[in-house]
TrEMBL record:
Gene Ontology MF term list: DNA binding; endonuclease activity
Top-level taxon of the source organism: Bacteria
The name this protein goes by in its record: Terminase
InterPro entries assigned: Phage_P2_GpM (IPR010270)
Cited Pfam families: Phage_term_smal
Organism expressing this protein natively: Comamonas koreensis
């Protein structure tokens, strides 16, 4: 259900009030739901609706349609920056990645990581690990490509540089950064033709793949890529 301009203004105002006072009151002094509580209700309804879909692709399409309904609330959060745990921010961040909406996802990731927001309860990892792995997977399978893949992986590397996460996740993100520069995904022929890449691109991608190999030598899956790039650069 799309919000009217009046509803959007209301949600934004309520978000600011919720962040500063925790609740708001109507003209008669009756406590009414905060913007956060209202969005939690909407989030619950959307989660129920998503259960109707078996296909992950269909779920991603549905999430893409749902995301704009949270924009007014999130604008209020960005305005006030309460820095507190927020299930709506955490969930919409992950939904935006699932939906391939990185324009929405990246500001949410920056805010969530800066504020120490935890992922939804069904995730058993910290937010830095979730963001790093979800973005890496999007690149490696070809959902996130071209210049967007390069820009997003570089930003996520910056955001998670000091995070304590499993080496395998760090390796996957570095692999994704290298592949993004090379324009490679798992859907392409595994025998990447390094000759088709410029020396500048090969030189830029190689350190990320080498780092992935250092972090996860057994499963990084970049050994052949490194050999091809090194051979290309030697020539």
């Amino acid at each position: 259900m799309r919000q009217t301009p009046a509803q959007a203004h209301y949600m934004r105002t309520m978000a600011a009030l919720a962040a500063s006072a925790g609740s708001a009151a109507d003209a008669h002094g009756q406590t009414i739901g905060t913007a956060y509580e209202l969005q939690l209700i909407q989030l619950h309804q959307h989660r129920i609706a998503l259960k109707d879909f078996k296909s992950n692709e269909r779920k991603a399409e549905a999430k893409r349609a749902m995301l704009p309904e949270y924009d007014a609330y999130l604008a209020g959060v960005f305005d006030t920056k309460p820095g507190t745990q927020d299930e709506v921010v955490a969930t919409i961040l992950i939904w935006a990645i699932d939906a391939g909406d990185y324009v929405r996802a990246m500001p949410l990731a920056e805010y969530a990581l800066a504020s120490g927001i935890n992922p939804p309860d069904d995730y058993k990892r910290d937010m830095a690990s979730v963001v790093a792995e979800e973005i890496a997977d999007a690149v490696l399978v070809g959902r996130l490509t071209d210049q967007d893949a390069i820009a997003v992986t570089q930003r996520v590397l910056e955001l998670t540089a000091e995070a304590d996460m499993h080496d395998q996740i760090k390796a996957k993100l570095n692999k994704a950064a290298g592949w993004a520069l090379l324009g490679k995904t798992n859907s392409q022929d595994i025998a990447m033709d390094a000759k088709g890449r410029t020396l500048q691109v090969c030189s830029a991608a190689l350190p990320y793949l080498q780092r992935a190999m250092e972090l996860d030598p057994a499963r990084a899956g970049v050994k052949k890529d490194i050999e091809r790039l090194e051979a290309r650069l030697k020539k």
